[in-house]
Amino acid sequence: MKKIVILLLCCTFLSACSGNPGSEQMDYDKTKKMIVDILKTDEGKKAIQEILTDTQMKQKLIMDQAVVTDTIEKTLVSEKGNEFWKKSFKDPEFAKSFATGMKKQNEELLKKLMKDPEYQGMMIDILKDPEYQKEMQDLLKSKDFRKHIQSTIEDTLESPLFKAKIQETLLKAAKEMEGNQGSQKQGQNGSGGGTQGGGGGQGT
Q1: Signal sequence span per UniProt (predicted)?
Q2: What is the pLDDT of residues 87-118, one digit of tens each?
């Protein structure tokens, strides 16, 4: 494990000591590839695991984590942070990627909250609140909401994914109907043949 760590440090040191500016990018790429290759080996993985399980390293990471968390919180609540998020969420691609990335965490959080008696009670109280009910009724009756619903329905109907799903459902239903009709015809033919056979026997 010590050999791996020393080798990683040597690679980093040699890359930093490169005096030729023209070869700086090349040295960086070589060093990066070398480190990645080392970390992919079993010895490299074991070395990282031992480093992360070291008591002193854990304490250092916890301290650094507190600093990082504090810095992030201060950045997020700052004016520049607010402007950054507002601008970023106006970008559809960013908003989609963010929502996709947080989907699993949000679902897990919601599941946990739904099982929490305190959260359940709070939601019930909100739903029973006359003021909230009135606001919901006003919202449902509003022209803007109806227009939004109509627009959503139209967009859904025009969606290629929705059209493909409807087409698939209709084709499946048509095949099932054909199968049922075929079974009924076979049953009718079988019963008709049996009746004719019985009549022929009586004639003889």
Answers
A1: 1-18
A2: 777 777 777 777 777 778 888 888 888 888 88
3-state secondary structure of 41: coil
pLDDT for the residue 61: 64
Q: What are the sequence ranges of the domains in the chain?
A: 1-55, 130-179
Question: Is residue 44 within 8 Å of 4, Cβ to Cβ?
Answer: yes
Res 196 pLDDT > 80: no
Does the pTM of the predicted model rise above 0.85? Answer: no
What are 198's two structure tokens?
A: 């019985």
Which residue matches tokens 């739904």? 114
CB 15 within 8 A of CB 31: yes
Instruction: Give the chain's radius of gyration (CA, Å).
Output: 34
Tokens 């990627």 identify what position? 97
Spatial distance between the Cα atoms of 34 and 4, rounded to a whole number of angstroms: 12
DSSP code for 48: H
One-character DSSP codes across 67-133:
HHHHHHHHHHHSHHHHHHHHHHHTSHHHHHHHHHHHHHHHHHHHHHHHH-HHHHHHHHHHHH-HHHH
DSSP 136-200: HHHHHHSHHHHHHHHHHHHHHHH-HHHHHHHHHHHHHHHHHHHHHHHHHHHHHHHHHHHHHHHHH
